[in-house]
């Protein structure tokens, strides 16, 4: 697994204390995460990260309750892999409309979105949209982007 910040391929796993806030509601828990041996930033590890996110959702829902329809959005909002921004719905759809103005293939759209967010994250340490990105074989794409695009279609955006 490669560090997105410094490019190192050396990493280690350790217990990490998560302090997450969503809409003023706080949760704390400890879960194993992967870190870069060189710069000590978090390194994406699909298995560990999914386990940590599931843990966060379970704790959050037990503590604050949940509307089942909102689970997918909570999944994204609680993640620390979204560039430390709360998910910004308006910015997501504005970005999609900007890139898709003259028509665009879905695969190209999601890659454009990644580069816009990633460049912004590198420069300012926060992403534009707050979306998290899944590392798939064909490159990074926003996690659950199908759901987002379908939602945009449904609402006529
Ligand atoms: Zn690193």
Question: Any descriptors?
Answer:
3-stranded antiparallel beta sheet, 5 helices, 157 residues, single chain, binds zinc ion, alpha+beta, 43% helix, 2 domains, two-stranded antiparallel ribbon, globular
Global outline: globular
Each distinct ligand:
zinc ion
Number of helices: 5
> Biggest β-sheet, characterized?
3 strands, antiparallel
Strand order of the largest sheet: 1-2-3
Number of domains: 2
Alpha carbon gap, first and last residue: 37 Å
Radius of gyration: 16 Å
Q: What is the mean pLDDT?
A: 74
Strand content: 15-25%
Which range best describes the helical content: under 10%, 10-25%, 25-40%, 40-55%, 55-70% or over 70%?
40-55%
* Weakly predicted, low-confidence segments: 68-78
- The counted number of beta strands is 5
Give the structural class: alpha+beta
The SSE order reads EEEHHHHEEH
Helices and strands, with pairings:
Elements: E1 11-22, E2 25-36, E3 42-43, H1 46-64, H2 71-78, H3 89-99, H4 106-124, E4 133-136, E5 139-142, H5 145-154
Antiparallel strand pairs: 1-2, 2-3, 4-5
Zinc ion binds at residues 3, 5-6, 8, 36, 38-39, 41.
What would you say this structure looks like, in words?
The model is unreliable at 68-78 (pLDDT under 50). The chain has helices spanning 46-64, 71-78, 89-99, 106-124, 145-154, and strands spanning 11-22, 25-36, 42-43, 133-136, 139-142. The longest helix has 19 residues, at 46-64. The strands form two sheets. A three-stranded antiparallel β-sheet has the order 1-2-3, with helices on one face. It has a two-stranded antiparallel sheet with strand order 4-5. By secondary structure, it is an alpha+beta fold. It contains five helices and five strands, in the order βββααααββα. The protein has two domains: 11-70, no CATH class; 89-154. Zinc ion binds next to loops.
């Amino acid at each position: 697994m490669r560090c997105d910040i410094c490019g190192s391929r050396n990493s280690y796993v350790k217990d990490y204390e998560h302090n997450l806030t969503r809409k003023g509601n706080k949760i704390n828990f400890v879960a194993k995460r992967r870190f870069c041996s060189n710069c000590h930033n978090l390194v994406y590890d699909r298995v560990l990260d999914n386990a940590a996110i599931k843990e966060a959702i379970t704790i959050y829902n037990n503590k604050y309750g949940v509307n089942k329809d909102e689970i997918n959005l909570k999944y994204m909002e609680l993640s620390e892999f979204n560039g430390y921004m709360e998910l910004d719905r308006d910015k997501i759809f504005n970005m999609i409309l900007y890139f898709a103005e003259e028509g665009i293939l879905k695969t190209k759209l999601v890659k454009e979105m990644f580069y816009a967010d990633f460049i912004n994250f590198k420069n300012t340490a926060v992403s534009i949209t707050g979306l998290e990105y899944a590392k798939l074989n064909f490159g990074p794409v926003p996690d659950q982007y199908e759901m987002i695009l379908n939602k945009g279609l449904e609402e006529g955006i």
